[in-house]
Design goal:
- InterPro entries: Endoribo_LPSP/chorism_mut-like (IPR013813), RutC-like_sf (IPR035959).
- It comes from Roseomonas haemaphysalidis.
- It holds the Pfam family YjgF_endoribonc.
- 30% of the residues lie in helices and 30% in strands.
- By secondary structure, the chain is of the alpha/beta class.
- The protein has one domain: 60s Ribosomal Protein L30, Chain: A (2-Layer Sandwich).
- The strands form 3 sheets. A 5-stranded mixed β-sheet has the order 1-2-9-7-8.
- Strand 7, helix 3 and strand 8 form a beta-alpha-beta unit.
- The longest helix is centred in the middle third of the chain and has 23 residues.
- The model has no long low-confidence stretch (mean pLDDT 96).
């Protein structure tokens, strides 16, 4: 039987990909004690390709950047599923961290990160409401436009 979270994913038309393999010396996720899962930063990968590259506000539109953040969160959730199996074990999205590749003139980082934050609430309901940091950076791995990391409370 499909769980509540899996049902929400299906209703949204989201099929979780296989979790991305780390590209350096780190792991995709780690437990930071009983019931706390930390997921490494995920970029907007789909079928092994980075779909949104470049700088937000200088070649990457705000709408595309939001879509990139949303895609990053899908990849974060794929890591969570790999870690815990049943997504209904997620009691709460504790924190999301967003990194936005942009020039110094760009100031709409929060609106970009809403792509991930809004999806977290769509997927996990009230348990998806989280604390968050959003940081502008000059570049990201693979020239990705956005990267998102997360922390989750697990039952």
């Amino acid at each position: 039987m499909t769980g509540t979270v899996e049902g929400r994913l299906a209703a949204l038309g989201i099929v979780l990909p296989a979790p991305a393999a780390p590209i350096a010396n780190y792991v995709g996720f780690n437990f930071a004690g009983p019931g706390v899962l930390v997921v490494s930063g995920q970029i907007p990968l789909q079928d092994g390709k980075i779909l949104f590259t470049g700088k937000v506000g200088a070649g990457v539109s705000l709408d595309d950047a939001r879509a990139a953040a949303r895609m990053c969160l899908v990849n974060v959730v794929a890591q969570v599923k790999a870690a815990v199996g049943d997504l209904d074990r997620v009691k709460r999205v504790v924190r999301l961290g967003g990194f936005i590749a942009a020039g110094p003139e760009f100031t709409q980082h929060a609106q970009v990160m809403n792509g991930a934050s809004d999806l977290a609430v769509e997927i996990f309901g009230e348990a998806g409401r989280h604390a968050r940091s959003t940081i502008g950076v000059p570049s990201l791995p693979g020239d990705a436009a956005v990267e998102v990391e997360g922390m989750f409370e697990i039952a």
